[in-house]
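Standup notes, protein team

Yesterday: finished cleaning the Secundilactobacillus hailunensis set.
Today: Pur operon repressor structure.
Blockers: none.

Input for Pur operon repressor:
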Amino acid sequence: MKVRRSDRLIDMTRYLLERPHRLVSLTFFSERYGSAKSSISEDLTILKRTLKFRGTGLLETVPGAAGGARFIPYIPEKEATEFVDGVIESLSEADRFLPGGYVYMSDLLGRPNVLRQVGRLIATQYLADQVDTVLTVATKGIPIAQSISDYLNVPFVIARHDSQITEGSTVSVNYVSGSSSRIEKMALSKRSLAPDSRVLIVDDFMKGGGTVGGMQSLVKEFDAKVAGVAVFAEGSFAGERRVPDYTSLLKIHATNDHVEVTPGNFAEQIYTPERLAQFVD
C-alpha cells in the first residue's frame, strides 16, 4: 500500500534516528512505503535540509545502486556550550564537595536528559573517526558509555575489577591507581574486543588517569587500538597524568569545602559549522 508523503517523512525520520551511522538503502524505503525511488530521494532531500538546519544531525546520502542514506547525529557548538554551562551551574554547589577532592555527580548522571546530551556531545567528537567499541569500567561511567555507544551505534563493553563466572574466560591486567598509587586489577572477557578494532575509552571521572591507563593496557592485550579517551569530568591533579590525550567535558577543582567547575577541553575539538561542512556537504 502506498503511503502519503507526510506519513513517509515521519516514519523515515523515526527509522533513521533509531539507527545512527547505519546505511539504509533506497530500495528498502521504496518497498516499505510502496513509492518510487525518485520520490524517496526527494523525501531524503527534505530530511537532510531540515535535520541540518535544526542541528539534529547530518543525513549523508550515498549514490549508486547500493547507495542510500545514513543519519549521523551531532550537537552544534552553541548547544554543546549551553549544556555544559548548565551542568557547571548544577555542580557548583558547596554541598557537592566530597573528601579527597571529589564531587557528588550521581544525581546528574542518573538523569536521562543529561546522559543523552553527554552521549551526543562525545559522539560528535568522533564523527570522522572509526570507533568499533566503547569501553568503560564498572563504575558510574557505564550509563555514559551506553549513551555514547547508542549515538555511535556500536557495542559497549565493561571491564571489571573482579572477574565473574558469567564473563567466561577473561584477560586481566594490573595497573597503578593514579591518585592513590595502589596496585589494582582489571579484567575483561576474551570475547569483548576483536583484534585491530578501534576502541573508545570512557570514564565518568579522572584524576591521575590510572583507571584509564589500565583500560588502555587491556586494549593492547587484545591487539586492538585506542581510538580516543573521553571523560565526563577531570579533577585537579598535582602530578603528571598517565593519560596525556583525552576529551573532558568538565574540569573540577575541589579543595577546602569549595567546588570550582569550569568547561573541559571539549570546545577545542567540537565540530564547528565549518568542520561539519567539510565532513558532509
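Follow-up from PR in the comments: The chain is about 35% helix and 25% strand.
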